[in-house]
Amino acid sequence: MITSEIMAAAQKLWDYHHMNHTLTPADCILALGSHDLRVAERAAELYLKQLAPLVIFSGGLGNVTKGVWTEQEADRFAQIALQKGVPAEAILIENQSTNTGENILFTQKLLHEKGLNPHRFLLVQKPYMERRSYATFKKHWPEKELLVTSPQTTLADYPNDEIPLEKVINIMVGDLQRIRIYPAKGFQIPQDIPEDVWDAYEQLVAWGFNKHLAS
After folding, report:
1. Alpha-carbon distance 70 to 179, whole Å?
2. What would the pLDDT profile of 40-93 be if each residue is shown by its tens digit?
3. Please, which residues bridge with residue 147 across strands?
4. Which cellular component terms (GO) are annotated to the entry (predicted)?
5. Which of 39, 71, 69 lies closest to 57 in space, CA to CA?
6. Number of Cβ atoms within 10 Å of the Cβ of 49
7. Cross-strand bridge partners of residue 148
8. Which of 2, 46, 79, 160 has the most CB atoms around its CB within 10 Å?
9. CA-CA distance, 88 to 99, in Å (whole number)?
10. Percentage of the chain exceeding pLDDT 90
C-alpha cells in the first residue's frame, strides 16, 4: 500500500529529478529512448512548435524493453513522431545504445558521420530521469549547451499499466542513488542533493523501495 507518507517522500524525489528548464529554440532535439512512448510525443511536440529543426531518437533495447519489445526504442519513437507530423527528413535515428552514456556517445558518432555539429540541444527524457540525463550529457559533452524537458505530467498522473506507481518510486530511488555515486565512476558530473531530498531517499529505502539500487 502506498501511504501518504510514501507519496510525500516520493514527491520530493520527483521534484528534485526535474531540472525545471525554460525551453528556448535550439539546434536539435535529442530524445532518449525507453519504454515511455510519451517521450517521443513530447519530442514531436517540441519540433512542431518549431523549437528545433532536427530530432534525434537514440535507443536500442534497454533494461525495461529488452525481451519485451522486438523493435528498437529509437525506431518505435521515430514512428510516433512521423504519425504526429514530423517529416522523415527532420529525423535521425541511433538505435544501438543500451544506456544513457551510450545514448550520448553513439549520438556524437552519428552526428560526426553526418557532418553535423549542433551546439544547442533540447534533451527529452522521462520526468524522473531529467537530472541524471543532464548530468550524464554534461560529463560526455561539456562544451554543448543543454536544456532538458520531459512529458508534462504530475507524479500522480504519470504511472500506467506498464509502469505502476511502485515501480516509478523504485526507479526514482535508484536514480537518486546513481546521481550520488556515479560522478566518482566518471559517468556523470556531480549534482548537489539537498538534505531533505536525501532524507526522503533514505526513508523510501527503509520502506522497501530498493529494487532499482545499484549494487
Report:
1. 30
2. 999 999 999 999 999 999 998 766 666 666 688 999 999 999 999 999 999 999
3. 122
4. plasma membrane
5. 39
6. 10
7. 123
8. 46
9. 25
10. 88
Note the pLDDT tens digit of each residue in 93-127.
Answer: 999 998 899 999 999 999 999 999 999 999 999 99
| Cell representation of residue 10 | 516520493
Residue type, 207: W
Place of cell 557532418: 115
Q: What angle do CA 166, 163, 131 make, to 5 degrees?
A: 85
Contact 32, 125 (CB under 8 A): yes
* pLDDT, tens digit, 9 for 90 and up, residues 170-191: 999 999 999 999 999 999 999 9
Alpha carbons 150 and 29: distance in angstroms, whole number: 12
Look at residues 124, 102, 100 and name the one whose alpha carbon lies nearest to residue 36: 124
Taking residues 36-42, what's their average pLDDT? 95
pLDDT at 63: 64
